[in-house]
Amino acid sequence: MGWGLSITNSANVHVLGAMLYGWYFDNYRQDCIQAHSCQRNLMRARGNDGSVAVLNLVGIGAASLVDSGGVGAVATVSATENLVGTGNPWMCAIAGWTG
Fold first, then answer.
1. Under a CB-based contact definition with an 8 Å cutoff, are residues 22 and 38 in contact?
2. Given a cut of 70, is residue 71 above it in pLDDT?
């Protein structure tokens, strides 16, 4: 499985903005974007000490923006619960995440 961003066993990491796509370019079809089924997760966070912060995270095509493996205040950030529009390109966004 590929990740747009993976932060593992880290401390004092700050990402001040990221746009992550979960769209595979093997056939250039876009039907998975609206269904958020191109990829399961865009960002993975594991084993961090709680000083990791990601601000202004935007994603397209995935079921969730963040998967922290059950650690942190919000273990999984759902894409469909954070939509910023009602049409193509079906973007989702969060202002911040820490873990």
1. yes
2. no
Query: What SS3 class is residue 31?
Result: helix
Please write the tens of the pLDDT for every residue from 24-69. Answer: 655 666 778 888 888 888 999 988 888 999 999 999 888 888 988 8
Structural contact between residues 90 and 83, judged by C-beta atoms closer than 8 angstroms: yes
Secondary structure class of 70 (helix, strand, coil) = coil
CA distance 75 to 26: 31
**Rg from Cα positions in the chain:** 13
Percent helix, strand and coil across the chain, each to the nearest 5: 10, 45, 45
